[in-house]
């Protein structure tokens, strides 16, 4: 009882108490046979979650602290040089930077390149449906978790528009899903380490800001929030595709989970949150939602901003018509995944109908299943799907050309 009281007193207010986490809806109990366990967290799991709300990325955070105790500008130059040219090229290299790159350049024992390649083949074959799931279900649905929103708002996610954030995130995802992209000097490896560096800068500067309420929110970009974000690219991705009629085989599920397990490791997510199986990860994803606040004004503002993002996209022809079509299509997908009540909580039109998924999901069930049976057709599907994913970058204009580049008003600006 004493331990329970201690942890309740130390938890950020956004997280539910342990007693509250044990009160799961009846409908959730139906998932127990599917995932092979009770969805409720054990007390040990709960303690880990609460601790994770105050934990950052120690090895990157140490380097950033060294930067600010010496010369931030020089430190950033050294990091960029090590990232793009190798740690051996950095003259008078600080020990904290050496430790960081020694860690990320030493591939974990469980890494399997064959699984990575198989994951890429599956992801490429999903074409733009990958974007629908990640944008309209994972990202839009994530805005309902308002504890997660605070760091986004303070980094300018509202006043700079959703197009910039979506475009930069999509470019990072493209980099991570490039063939050989996660090799040491591949675009995905370098993009991920760049984003990890930005996260550490944001974490340091927001935590020191008088605007940041650590009693309410914990640490900015904490381990639990990073783990939840990583799970969106794996667990939510696979579940969302099934709802759109695209079913991963057990091997493809394992491969996709492995890909994002490695990306999460590169991003600085602690290994205790990097689970190998989809079933285990479903429970973890649910557990992370128990550390989040209810929807609030940030949910509506971020939701509205994301909803109108398609109206600023770039098209080679019929731009006005295609922008409007994209706007209504993405809303229909969000409605399909989130339902009417959550659409309303996000400030989105609750009368929206899920017309696009209802039309395409039955077609996908037949077409994707049939294409698997013919290797040449399946290979062509993967090539066309990947090209469609790459073509989407042009729709974001300049925002689709690179990952986060903080301006002088951004907490990560150096």
From TrEMBL:
<dbReference type="Pfam" id="PF09995">
    <property type="entry name" value="MPAB_Lcp_cat"/>
</dbReference>
<dbReference type="InterPro" id="IPR037473">
    <property type="entry name" value="Lcp-like"/>
</dbReference>
<dbReference type="GO" id="GO:0016491">
    <property type="term" value="F:oxidoreductase activity"/>
</dbReference>
<protein>
    <submittedName>
        <fullName>DUF2236 domain-containing protein</fullName>
    </submittedName>
</protein>
<dbReference type="InterPro" id="IPR018713">
    <property type="entry name" value="MPAB/Lcp_cat_dom"/>
</dbReference>
<feature type="domain" description="ER-bound oxygenase mpaB/mpaB'/Rubber oxygenase catalytic">
    <location>
        <begin position="138"/>
        <end position="351"/>
    </location>
</feature>
């Amino acid at each position: 009882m004493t331990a329970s009281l201690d942890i309740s007193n130390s938890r950020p207010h956004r997280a539910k108490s342990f007693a509250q986490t044990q009160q799961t809806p009846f409908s959730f109990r139906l998932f127990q046979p599917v995932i092979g366990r009770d969805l409720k967290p054990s007390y040990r799991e709960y303690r880990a979650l609460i601790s994770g709300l105050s934990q950052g990325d120690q090895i990157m955070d140490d380097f950033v602290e060294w930067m600010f105790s010496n010369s931030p500008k020089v430190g950033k130059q050294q990091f960029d040089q090590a990232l793009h040219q190798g740690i051996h090229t950095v003259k008078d290299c600080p020990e904290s930077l050496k430790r960081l790159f020694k860690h990320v350049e030493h591939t974990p024992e469980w890494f399997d390149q064959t699984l990575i390649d198989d994951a890429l083949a599956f992801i490429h074959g999903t074409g733009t449906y990958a974007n629908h799931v990640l944008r309209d279900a994972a990202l839009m649905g994530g805005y309902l978790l308002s504890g997660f929103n605070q760091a986004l708002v303070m980094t300018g996610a509202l006043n700079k528009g959703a197009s910039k954030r979506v475009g930069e995130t999509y470019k990072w995802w493209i980099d991570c899903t490039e063939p050989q992209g996660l090799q040491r000097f591949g675009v995905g490896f370098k993009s991920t380490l760049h984003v990890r560096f930005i996260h550490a800068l944001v974490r340091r500067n927001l935590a020191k800001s008088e605007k940041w309420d650590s009693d309410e929110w914990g640490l900015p970009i904490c381990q639990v929030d990073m783990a939840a974000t990583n799970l969106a690219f794996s667990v939510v991705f696979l579940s969302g595709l099934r709802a759109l009629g695209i079913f991963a085989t057990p091997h493809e599920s394992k491969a996709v989970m492995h890909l994002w397990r490695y990306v999460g490791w590169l991003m600085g997510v602690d290994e205790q949150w990097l689970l190998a199986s989809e079933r285990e990860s479903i429970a973890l994803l649910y557990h992370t939602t128990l550390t989040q606040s209810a929807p609030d004004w940030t949910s509506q503002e971020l939701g509205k901003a994301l909803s109108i993002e398609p109206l600023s996209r770039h098209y080679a022809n019929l731009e006005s018509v295609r922008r409007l079509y994209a706007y209504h299509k993405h809303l229909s997908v969000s409605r399909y995944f989130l339902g009417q009540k959550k659409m309303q909580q996000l400030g989105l039109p609750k009368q929206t109908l899920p017309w696009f998924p209802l039309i395409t999901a039955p077609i996908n069930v037949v077409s994707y299943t049939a294409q698997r049976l013919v290797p040449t057709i399946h290979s062509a599907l993967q090539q066309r799907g990947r090209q469609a994913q790459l073509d989407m970058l042009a729709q974001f204009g300049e925002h689709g050309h690179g990952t986060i580049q903080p301006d002088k008003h951004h907490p990560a600006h150096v």
